[in-house]
């Protein structure tokens, strides 16, 4: 019998993300994942009890990573710069909009765990949304942005930018730059 390949949980989660983006939730199987990682399926079972456990762990890990990046935005930055950084983070983690769908599909196997993650992710996203509203209000109060715009409208535009299909066409940085220019300066040629 050959030597067992040493594998980290992070490697498994990273490859899971690749498969999810490429083939969706139904394309993630331990057989396919073990082939991509060049390990036996039993190795994957040492880390995760089943596919559902793996995908829920991936989602939790992705949300934790996104939250860390948001929390790392320097407090002393101007509010509009914070919002630019937040938009970039959202677009860079665009697969988060699939989380709700994934959790619904996973509820058949472990309803309690799926409900827990759904609630936790919702709380995290609402906390981020409220932080974003504060930054928008700060941008208005400091005169960086006009004060006659609705904060919720701007927040929704930023928050739902992950749904824009052209993100793949332009890339995260270009999409962030263009969207933020439209938010800050509009599209009118003056």
Task: Describe the 3D structure.
The chain folds into two domains: 1-48, Arc Repressor Mutant, subunit A (Orthogonal Bundle), CATH 1.10.10; 51-185, Orthogonal Bundle (Tetracycline Repressor, domain 2). It contains ten helices and no strands. It has 190 residues and is mostly helical. Helix content is 69%, strand content 0%. GO terms for molecular function: DNA binding. Pfam families: TetR_N.
What sort of overall outline do the alpha carbons produce when their principal axes are compared? Answer: elongated
**CATH architectural grouping of the largest domain:** Orthogonal Bundle
Radius of gyration: 20 Å
Q: How many structural domains can be distinguished in the coordinates?
A: 2
Please give the alpha-carbon distance between the first and last residues. Answer: 72 Å
How many helical elements? 10
CATH class of the largest domain: Mainly Alpha
Describe the sheet with the most strands.
Answer: none
Low-confidence stretches: none
Q: What is the assigned CATH homologous superfamily of the largest domain?
A: Tetracycline Repressor, domain 2
- As a percent range, the share of helical residues equals 55-70%
**SS content category:** mainly alpha
Count of β-strands: 0
| SSE pattern, N- to C-terminal | HHHHHHHHHH
Mean pLDDT: 85
- Determine the CATH topology of the largest domain: Tetracycline Repressor, domain 2
Share in β-strands: under 5%
InterPro entries: Homeodomain-like_sf (IPR009057), HTH-type_Tx_Regulator (IPR050624), HTH_TetR (IPR001647), Tet_transcr_reg_TetR-rel_C_sf (IPR036271)
DNA-binding region: 29-48
Domain HTH tetR-type: 6-66
GO molecular function: DNA binding
């Amino acid at each position: 019998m050959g030597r067992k390949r040493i594998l980290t949980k992070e490697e498994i989660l990273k490859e899971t993300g690749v498969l999810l983006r490429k083939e969706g939730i139904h394309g993630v199987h331990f057989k396919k994942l073990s082939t991509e990682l060049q390990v036996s399926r039993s190795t994957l079972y040492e880390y995760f009890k089943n596919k559902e456990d793996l995908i829920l762990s991936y989602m939790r890990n992705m949300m934790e990573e996104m939250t860390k990046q948001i929390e790392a935005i320097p407090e002393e930055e101007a509010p509009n710069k914070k919002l630019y950084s937040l938009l970039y983070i959202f677009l860079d983690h665009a697969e988060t909009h699939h989380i709700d769908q994934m959790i619904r599909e996973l509820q058949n196997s472990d309803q309690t765990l799926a409900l827990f993650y759904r609630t936790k992710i919702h709380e995290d996203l609402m906390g981020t949304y409220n932080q974003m509203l504060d930054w928008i209000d700060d941008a208005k109060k400091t005169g960086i942005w006009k004060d006659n715009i609705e904060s919720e409208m701007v927040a929704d535009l930023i928050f739902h930018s992950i749904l824009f299909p052209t993100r793949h066409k332009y890339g995260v940085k270009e999409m962030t730059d263009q969207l933020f220019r439209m938010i800050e300066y509009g599209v009118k040629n003056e």
